[in-house]
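Researcher: Let's run the pair from yesterday's discussion. Sequence first, then tokens, for each.
Model: Starting with the first of the pair.
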Amino acid sequence: MRQEIITTSKEETIRFGQKLAARLSSGAVIALSGDLGAGKTTLTQGLLSGLGVAGPYTSPTFVIMKQYDISPEAHKGIRRAYHADAYRIGTQEMLSIGWEEWMEDPAGIVIAEWPERIADIIPESAISLSLQWLDETRRRIVIENGGGEM
């Protein structure tokens, strides 16, 4: 499935992330690509909000990965969200900090920013979202569902 949408504000991008979160199931991998400032972290804020994670949410650019615990009332068995940012690292570094453990967590989902930097460990079933900066307020989001659980 391929879908394209245009959001016209930061708030609309967050709302889109919230709606997407409602469709996810445990085990999902969400791969977010796009240039700096394209809206990857904003979309992730919507995903985390939609999963019921209390904010604030910040990009893990310098810490590489953040784990968010989700209340037992969360939908579809999701209890943890792993938010990883591969901007500054490659596959070996990502593996060394726990990638395989996150992927094996039956109650987790993984949100990966800059997946092209770790492409060899992103599963084919990942839900890929490519974000493009159009202007100060508008973003193009192209969604390709690689067979991931939604």
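Model: Moving on to the second of the pair.
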Amino acid sequence: MIATRYKAAIFDLDGTLVHSEPAWEAAKRQVLDRLGVRVPQSTYDAFVGRGVRGFLTEVLGSNLTDQHRTELANEIGAAADILLPLMRQPIPGAAQSISRLADAGLRIAICSSSPRRHILAALAQLGLADRISAIVSGAELPRGKPDPLPYRETLRLLDLGPAEAFAVEDALPGAMSAHAAGLTVIGIGPQSAKPGFLEYCNLRASDYSGFDRTMFASP
């Protein structure tokens, strides 16, 4: 089995384990509407899988102070606190695949751009809290995806080298981050079939049924 070649599996969260992007987009829109700022849909789409701070810098300009960016990011996070429990949905098969990997002896980690409290809430919803060995929140780091720092930090917490783990990602910034950190990257979901994504992923699956077939197939 491919899975047992590795000691750990590192999963993105939003879009990979749970459908949550509509809630995050709605939270961003609430804050920008209050500021009277309108941005095209393409800007929201471009920041799927990336941190809120980078989104705010892109939308409001590089002259945005660190303090103001933090305040606005906190506002978006507070709006997401309300919206996520109403809108977040588990991705079919994700929790079962993680449990199967854990049962096969792999350690499971989460490397997400979301704040830690949202990661923990999603893992509780999925029933996976006791399966996770390490959690990295890009919101706590100086650089987020697509920079390799989040995945390097995850490997540090696991005390593993990049050849000993693989990453599962649904969005291009995350795939770029994991690839730059030296990890094998497995794309999941429809976005992973796009040409730009394929440059950064070693394997892909349209859903978790395909993921299981790939990871647990007999040699």
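Researcher: Give me one sentence on the second I can quote.
Model: Strands lie at 8-11, 18-19, 89-90, 107-112, 132-137, 165-169, 184-188, 203-205.
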